[in-house]
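Now for a concrete sample entry.
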Amino acid sequence: MFCFLSHIFTNVDASLLCLLCSDANIVEEHISMDGTFDDFLALMPADDCRYALYDVNFTTNDGRATTKLCMISWAPDTAKVKSKMIYAGSKDALARVFVGVGTKVTATDMSELTEDDVIAACRKFA
């Protein structure tokens, strides 16, 4: 089901994916080559789940500039139970398809999805 996705995400800074509950299809809602992390966060709905890919630019603990592709699973507490279950059930299958994902972050609240939190998660594996 997700095999077609492995080829469409090259040279992308941010992509937001919506899994449609009615027919289990994935819809690419937004793709961007520029913008800030705050612009990216503004795309996350307050009451529905999303998967996102974000290319994180950061400096490692030893001072090297690097990038990592981060897969973000957004499942806010206010989302419907059905949506949360569908996203949770498809997370591992989708993660296997995205070749090159270096870090995975799961967030249920905006306080868990700050730029500092995402960079810290990337630094753990840099």
Summary: The two ends are 31 Å apart (CA to CA). The beta strands are 14-20, 25-32, 50-59, 65-74, 101-107.
